[in-house]
Design a protein that fits this description.
Layout: E1 6-9, E2 16-17, E3 20-21, H1 25-34, E4 39-43, H2 50-59, E5 69-71, H3 72-83, E6 88-92, E7 105-106, E8 116-119, H4 128-139, E9 143-146, E10 152-155, E11 158-161, H5 163-174, E12 179-180, H6 186-196, E13 203-207, H7 210-219, E14 223-227, H8 234-239, E15 246-248
Parallel strand pairs: 1-4, 1-13, 4-5, 6-7, 6-8, 8-9, 9-12, 13-14, 14-15
Antiparallel strand pairs: 2-3, 10-11
Length: 266
């Protein structure tokens, strides 16, 4: 591995669980900051805006600001503005991310038929009636876009189902394949690298999801680091179709990687 200059870091399960800092995570982030390491927090979180994410992390002691955050909703809005300008968009999402969806024409469930249906994060919004409505719109020709296809995520109460568990059924039933705008989309990683002004080969991606975070990043030429926190399960790692470049017990161990000499402070 070449010398590393920058880091892409997942949030849920890596830095926090249910928005509470994991042991040692704040101190590790402070070491990266002290070493002037360019970093971006790249997350499929769909329940909060970038500003809200930054504020919550700062409240836990992390030295980050809103410009450090790249979320799936923000990436989705940018994608739709570029590739589907003026489209009527029906959003099915648990959480209010309207502030990060500027420039989109959002329609209500009872409004005009949408040109695009966007699935955000799973939760109470993913009831039978709403999913059946999505199915019918897609069958009628609406484009299906999903912010991610994560199957589950870690909360303080354990693992909860996420969007991917429902998306698989919708795709099969409607006979379509959704456009994915968050991780593991190569476009999402390319956007993050462009923000930092670095090449893939000199960047790390740190995540707890071996498929969407780590192997997806490695397929883009980014060096992958899997942490054994959050949604990590040994059986998931064993069943994966690739090997992470590195596996760490937690994000707290990141500054100790030998390849990170340029990132280490003190």
């Amino acid at each position: 591995m070449p010398r590393i200059r920058a880091a892409l870091i997942d949030i849920d399960g890596v830095l926090t669980v249910s928005w509470k800092a994991l042991p040692g995570a704040v101190a590790a982030m402070e070491r990266l900051r002290a070493g002037d390491v360019p970093l971006a927090l790249v997350t499929n979180t769909t329940s909060r805006t970038r500003a809200s994410v930054a504020a919550r992390l700062a409240g836990e002691g992390f030295p980050v600001g809103v410009d450090d955050i790249l979320t799936a909703p923000a990436a989705t809005a940018a994608h739709l503005r570029e590739h589907h300008p003026g489209a009527r968009v029906l959003l099915v999402n648990t959480g209010d991310v309207a502030d990060d969806l500027g420039g989109l024409t959002l329609v209500d469930a009872d409004g005009p038929a949408p040109d695009v249906v966007v699935l955000g994060g799973a939760g109470d919004a993913f009831g039978y009636a709403s999913l059946n409505r999505v199915f019918r719109h897609v069958r009628d020709g609406a484009l299906l876009v999903a912010m991610h296809r994560n199957l589950y995520w870690r909360t303080a109460d354990g693992l909860d189902l996420d969007t991917g568990a429902f998306l698989l059924g919708l795709e099969r039933a409607a006979g379509v394949e959704a456009e994915i705008t968050g991780k593991p989309s190569p476009t999402f990683f390319a956007t993050a690298l462009a923000r930092l002004g670095v090449d893939a080969g000199e960047t790390l991606m740190v995540g707890d999801d071996i498929e969407s975070d780590v192997l997806a990043a490695q397929r883009c030429g980014i060096n992958g680091v899997l942490v054994r926190t959050g949604k990590y399960l040994p059986e998931t790692q064993e069943a994966a179709d690739g090997e992470p470049d590195h596996v760490l017990d937690s994000f707290a161990d990141l500054p100790e990687l030998p390849e990170l000499l340029g990132m280490r402070a003190g």
